[in-house]
Amino acid sequence: MASHYQGNNRELAALDAFIALTRAADAMQTAAFGRTPVPEEISMTQFEVLEALLHREPLTQAEIGKKILKTKGNISYTLDKLVKRGYVQRRVCDEDRRERLIELTSAGRKLIGDYFPHLARSFALASLELDEFELELLAGLAKRLGHGADNQTTQPKTVSQGTTPRTSKLSENQKLR
Length: 177
Prior knowledge:
- A hairpin with a 7-residue loop joins strand 2 (88-92) and strand 3 (100-104).
- The protein is built from 8 helices and 3 strands.
- The chain has helices at residues 9-35, 44-56, 61-68, 72-84, 106-126, 132-154, 159-162, 172-176, and strands at residues 59-60, 88-92, 100-104.
- It has one domain (9-146): Arc Repressor Mutant, subunit A, CATH 1.10.10.
- A 3-stranded antiparallel sheet has the order 1-3-2.
- With 177 residues, it is mainly α.
């Protein structure tokens, strides 16, 4: 990707990777949700909460916020709406009574459970450009990149301290695939 920034190879490669990942994620999300829209009775943020709970319930409000990248205030408002609609419930945590655990109700489990397989198929269709091995490789690399970036917030490094820029071994044809 062309850039007017005149940084070193590592900086340019990192910016290109960020832009490519962001655009690819946006394109996949647009295609998948275009094919399988979120049920009308819930917002996108409410869907994200229900989806997080579908796979890992119960969760605390803070855990939900971290998983779906929303603020505590936004999560509180969203949970209030989901509780009012009967899709989730709050209960006191046995280990720490100050903490509230959020879990799906039967209505919430039915709503997200019925919808999610259709969405998964839509994401599979949106990713047909890559084979399964490539998707698994991409997922692993993206997770590794994310964990590394998370670690940078607690232990910042500079490029010269901990990494050596690598020469790309991908041919131009591989980069365009």
